[in-house]
């Protein structure tokens, strides 16, 4: 029974981690303004360490224990890039919207007073779980109102479900 539950848990977590590391899923609380994506990984470490210790005590064979510790060490190498590439999300609030959305924003300096504004849009599908709806970008001048509105989060949501930073239109699907 315990082995069966462990296998089911591992399968669910592998699928979940795949979604997290490909930036398709985000665990975010709009109430707490907190990204819980990394926090879900801490539970894995606690479970892996406790399963490793208990399996060392219970099983006399080393293969099962070494496998658990191997997964633990591999997951440590997988989490470090995600920790360094942490994101800040912003909730989009408007009475025209039927769903909850959050965005992640970045820019890349292109030189000559130009920058590439990038927005990732996430839509809530379950409580606290958001799915990536797309990546949108626009090249603008760093002296433009679009650039200023983008960084000051001054946006308008149109009735057609478009998030707008002056001339930067982002569809909210």
Walk me through what this model shows.
This protein has 173 residues and is an alpha+beta fold. The protein has two domains: 2-84, no CATH class; 89-171, no CATH class. The chain has four helices and nine strands; from the N terminus they run H-E-E-H-H-E-E-E-E-H-E-E-E. It has helices at 2-21, 37-58, 62-84, 145-152, and strands at 25-29, 34-35, 89-92, 101-111, 114-126, 129-141, 156-157, 162-165, 168-171. The strands form two sheets. It has a six-stranded antiparallel β-sheet. A three-stranded antiparallel β-sheet has the order 7-8-9. Helix 2 (37-58) packs antiparallel against helix 3. The model has no long low-confidence stretch (mean pLDDT 78).
Q: Topology of this structure?
A:
Blueprint: H1 2-21, E1 25-29, E2 34-35, H2 37-58, H3 62-84, E3 89-92, E4 101-111, E5 114-126, E6 129-141, H4 145-152, E7 156-157, E8 162-165, E9 168-171
Antiparallel strand pairs: 1-2, 1-6, 3-4, 4-5, 5-6, 7-8, 8-9
Helix pairs in contact: 2-3
Gap between N and C termini: 42 Å
Evaluate the radius of gyration.
21 Å
Poorly predicted runs: none
Specify the structural class. Answer: alpha+beta
Portion of residues in helices? 40-55%
Total number of distinct structural domains? 2
- Mean pLDDT figure: 78
Name the strands of the widest sheet in spatial order.
2-1-6-5-4-3
The 3D shape can be described as: elongated
